[in-house]
Amino acid sequence: MGKLNSLLKKTMIQKFKITLILLVLNALALLVLFFLSNAQFKSLHFQNNLATNITSITDGINSMHISGSVISEPIYLNKEGLNWSIKSPIQWPANNFTVNQIIHQLNLLKETSQFSFKELIQTNQSLSDYGLDEPSLVFEIKKTDQELKIIIGNTTALGNKLYLYLPQKEMVYIVSNNLYDTPFPELDNLKQKQIINIPSFEIDALNYQVRTSDTSNRGLLSVRIEKRENDNTWYFKSPLKTQADSGLVLKTIKELTSARVKKFLPPEILDSEMLGFDNPSMKLTLEGNKRRATLILGNTFLDQTNHKNYYAKLESNDSVFTVNSKSFDRFIEADKALREKNFVNFLTNKTTTIDITNTQFQTKLQQLENGAWQSLVLYPVNKNPPSKADQVTINDFLDQLRNLRAVDFFSDNPKNEDLHSLGFNQPIISIALFNKETPMLSLSAAPHPQDRSLLLIHLKNGSTIYSVEKALFLKKFVPNPLHYKDRLIEKLPLSAEIIGLEIEDISQKSSPYLLNYRKDESPGKIPEELLEVLKKITVRRYLERPFNQEERDDDGNIIWRYRLTFKILLPGDRGNKTENRVYYIGNRITGSIQLGADPKQNLVFEFSPKFLQALYPYISEFKLTPESLNEAPEYPQAVEPLNLKSGTNKLSKNQAAKDK
Asked: How is residue 509 annotated by DSSP?
């Protein structure tokens, strides 16, 4: 009996194990079937997902064709490198930003629901029910050997959704209305606005040809401007090797790269004779970073507003358009307009000798070993020794010469006979600079043959004759040696003391003294400001005329009306010594100009503003206010009120008496 029970237990255990194994196998089979079916579902969903289908093509897209009822004509776009271009209906670079925005909007399309084309048929519907047979927009996008067609139909009943159909997938989607948030760009908005698509900073050369004759290509002005890589300056390589105005060249290039098409012309109205491209008015080429662009300008015409325009096209593009002439007419004279007008070049700190010559004077300015300058008069011959020159005036002379700027360029490559005929063999002024004995610069000025307000300037061994403003040139570069004389007439030693000062009005016979100061005798106010400027007398400028005490003006009035005399005490080892100084002063000519004279040195000059300010209180014909003399102001007397009787104003008795 025990054996039988043991056998039954073993049999039951074996059956339980078999059942458990079968249950586990069934569970595993169910899991496998679930995962397989879920993977198939996900794969099917992934294949039918709208965003996946679109982004798989747009990631690497190289062409796009756009058509539909919301645009006037189909547009074909092709990607070349990083840039898009329009291939149809015209050939023109596309606006990359606008095209990328369209692609971005396509990538953002996301379905809220979808159904297959078969389901559409099964419900007795067609594409026309959703506006997909005559779509508003059709995108045909391609990526190498892959392509996808996206058809946009009607909006949903609520208007916030769109029906979209992918023929390759035979799926209809309902998507948000992102594409219509803003009006879809027309062809004009897809075109690149700039004519030349090269960044201005890349450009290192500018070529242009301008037609100077209407009958043949022989009348062509050909110009090339290049950039020097070492210092980023620009120069003309042809027709004349000369410096260009780098600032103007950069500005011109920036304007060229910013120039825009005014209007494209339909191909059916183009007339080659009307356009004038066989014998163009101008050709402009910009070169940079292994690429170049050439703009051809044909004939000109006046638009409806009577403004001048050019027919234009790019050399590598058959599309014809119009441009405003304003940006391009400058090239007719650009060979001169873009040239550097600052034509004098030398090192200021290397200049040690300056020669300035005209028919009256030959002045030599020399720098001494200590850095100071002296002035010598070589003509007219005189016995005057070298005099100290004014450092500020010489520095200003050199700065003005280095910054001398031409008005225009009179002629290039003149011959010797041309220079003689223009008067350069007998120049108005000649200027020569030297570094010790080495010539640095030689400049001559001659009269302008057509314009009396200009002078002609020629540099020795130079290839150009320049025009400059005559009045400005003669004011800046003065041959008279007095112009360079040191403005300091006298500076008293620190130990010197002014012990007496007189100012006389020579025209007054009685009481001529306007000031009579004695240090030991004058208890009154000491003229401190005037005494201070007398210790160091500077002038504004010298006049080219001798001193004559009896000189009179056109009205017969004596010019030198005042005499200023001061006595100086000079202490010394062998005892004190006194000296007198005498200066003559004329009437004030203007508010800031008053003549002075030093009879001892035979100099006539204009006083410095500082000297006039100190002198003014003593020779002024006007009574100065107490405030101007730093004195307490006077209190004004009270004004008596007017008597008002019968509506008539009557003066008081006191006021009437004052009036009488």
From this structure: S
Q: What is the pLDDT of residue 211?
A: 86
Contact (CB, 8 A) for 310 and 298 = yes
Tokens of 644: 């008002």
Distant-in-sequence, close-in-space partners of 374: CB < 8 Å, separation ≥ 6: 365, 366, 368, 386, 387, 388, 389
Residue that has been written with the tokens 């403003």 in this structure: 469
User: Rounded CA gap, 481 and 458, in Å?
Assistant: 23
Q: What is the pLDDT of residue 45?
A: 46
**354: region left, alpha or beta (phi > 0 left; psi from -120 to 50 alpha):** beta
643 pLDDT exceeds 70? no
DSSP-derived secondary structure letter, 448: -
Residues 6 or more apart from 263 whose CB is under 8 A from it?
Answer: 321, 322
**What does the alpha-carbon distance between residue 193 and residue 96 come to, in Å, rounded to a whole number?**
11
pLDDT digits (tens, 9 = 90+) for 476-524: 999 999 999 999 999 999 999 999 999 999 988 887 899 999 988 866 6
DSSP 507: T
Tokens 């260009």 correspond to 244
> Could you give the domains of the chain?
50-190 (3.30.1490), 200-337 (3.30.1490), 348-484 (no CATH), 488-629 (2.60.40)
Computed over its alpha carbons, how large is the radius of gyration of the chain? 48
What per-residue confidence (pLDDT) applies to 318?
A: 86
Q: Are 567 and 618 in contact (CB under 8 A)?
A: no
Helix axes 2-48, 50-58, angle to 10 degrees: 60
Q: How many CB atoms lie within 10 A of CB 599?
A: 16
Residue with tokens 């061994």, as numbered in its chain: 461
Kind and range of the H or E run holding 218: none
Inter-residue contact 586 to 594 (CB < 8 Å): yes
What type of residue sits at position 73? Answer: E
- Residue 634: HSE in the Cβ half-sphere, 13 Å Cα cutoff: 8
Are the C-beta atoms of residues 262 and 323 closer than 8 Å to each other?
A: yes
Residue 503 CB-density burial (10 A; 0-12 exposed, 13-18 middle, 19+ buried): buried
Contact 169, 53 (CB under 8 A): yes
CA terminus-to-terminus distance, the chain: 171
Decide: pTM greater than 0.70. no
- The rounded distance, in Å, linking the Cα atoms of 270 and 453 is 50
In degrees and rounded to multiples of 5, residue 49 shows phi and psi of: -65, 130
| Structural tokens at position 114 | 């979808």
Per-residue model confidence (pLDDT) at position 219: 65
Task: Tell me the C-alpha distance between 465 and 423, whole Å.
Answer: 12
Q: Quickly state the pLDDT bin for 653 (edges 50, 70, 90).
A: very low
Alpha-carbon span 187 to 168, nearest angstrom:
28
What does the DSSP 8-state code read for residue 260?
A: B
| Residue 9's pLDDT band (cuts 50, 70, 90) | low
